[in-house]
């Protein structure tokens, strides 16, 4: 991977705020959803995320700046050519500057995981040498976790949190959503019918990759509801308004009302005033324990679109009669 400073376009002296601003600015430009015609969009976005993950972590950034890890967060092998310059004649060397025994062959392990080290040939055992943790630091393994019985377990990748917004219809009836994860990978997310807002889904192994050879972290996706043009949420109930022609409000009629699962007919009785609310049971949002809330429908009385002379004369006569 390229130098993370170059990827984010910041200087090596940039502070945390500058790095965050640079990442957010480029994330908007490079997000795969905004570059559907670019076949390399996901790779570019993943590279940007990796660079930010490294530079936003104070410890990792320090290790990179000191040359202990590379741009991908992998340990760098150090040059040991300067060790043991006065070596013995006729002995082969594993690393440049080391005797025939390599550095890995120089250590013995006991029940606690390390016992100092021994040299092969001519030296015998010597106590007080460097322990395995020290050697781990030399090779960049200092962040690995000690496993039971000795050895090391690589640290797993970080988990990631994200929010996916769905329409009310998708939440109620179920749907499939293509989601781009923070690592740039696109997955198909199955939204089950009746999924409640705030429901959290775990995508195992879809989090950040481990920089130490461990398993990747997980992605946790929280479901959020998008605002709807026709319905307003009231807890698990929904509210909507419907226009009722004047003659239907006076004489009574059946009026079609939209719901999340399709339109239904509402029986509006005669002499229904504007602002009256009707309840359609089970036509609201899914409930966590099963079932659904209600749809509350408020009527608005609509006058004719064009002036009606007969209606005006009738209402004028009614008004004059009431004033008499």
TrEMBL record:
It holds the Pfam family DnaJ. One of its GO terms (molecular function) is unfolded protein binding. InterPro entries: DnaJ_C (IPR002939), DnaJ_domain (IPR001623), DnaJ_domain_CS (IPR018253), HSP40/DnaJ_pept-bd (IPR008971), J_dom_sf (IPR036869). GO terms for biological process: protein refolding. The keyword Magnesium does not apply. Residues 3-68 form the J domain. This is Heat shock protein. GO terms for cellular component: cytoplasm. Keywords: Chaperone, Stress response. The keyword Chaperone applies.
């Amino acid at each position: 991977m390229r130098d993370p400073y170059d990827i984010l376009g910041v200087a090596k002296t940039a502070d945390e705020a500058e790095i965050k601003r640079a990442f957010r600015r480029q994330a908007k430009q490079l997000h795969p959803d905004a570059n559907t015609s670019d076949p390399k969009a996901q790779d570019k976005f993943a590279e940007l995320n990796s660079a930010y993950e490294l530079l936003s972590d104070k410890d990792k950034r320090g290790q990179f700046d000191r040359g202990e890890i590379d741009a991908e967060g992998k340990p760098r092998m150090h040059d040991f050519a300067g060790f043991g310059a006065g070596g013995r004649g006729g002995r082969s060397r594993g690393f440049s500057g080391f005797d025939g025994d390599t550095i890995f062959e120089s250590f013995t392990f006991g029940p606690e995981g390390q016992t100092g080290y021994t040299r092969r040939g001519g030296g015998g055992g010597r106590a007080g040498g460097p322990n395995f943790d020290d050697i781990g630091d030399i090779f960049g393994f200092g962040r690995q976790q000690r496993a039971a019985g000795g050895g090391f377990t690589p640290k797993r990748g970080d988990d990631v949190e994200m929010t996916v917004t769905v329409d009310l219809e998708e939440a109620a009836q179920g749907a499939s959503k293509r989601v781009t994860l923070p690592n740039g990978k696109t997955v198909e997310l199955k939204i089950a019918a009746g999924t409640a807002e705030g429901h959290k889904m775990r995508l195992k192994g879809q989090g950040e990759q481990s920089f130490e050879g461990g398993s990747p972290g997980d992605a946790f996706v929280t479901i959020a509801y998008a605002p709807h043009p026709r319905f307003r949420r009231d807890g698990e109930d929904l509210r909507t308004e419907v226009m009722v022609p004047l003659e239907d409000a006076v004489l009574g009629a059946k009026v079609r009302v939209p719901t999340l699962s399709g339109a239904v007919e509402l029986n509006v009785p005669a002499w229904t005033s504007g602002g009256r609310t009707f309840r359609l049971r089970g036509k609201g949002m899914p409930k966590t324990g099963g079932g659904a809330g209600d749809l509350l429908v408020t009527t608005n009385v609509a006058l004719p679109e064009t002036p009606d002379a007969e209606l005006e004369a009738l209402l004028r006569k009614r008004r004059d009669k009431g004033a008499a």
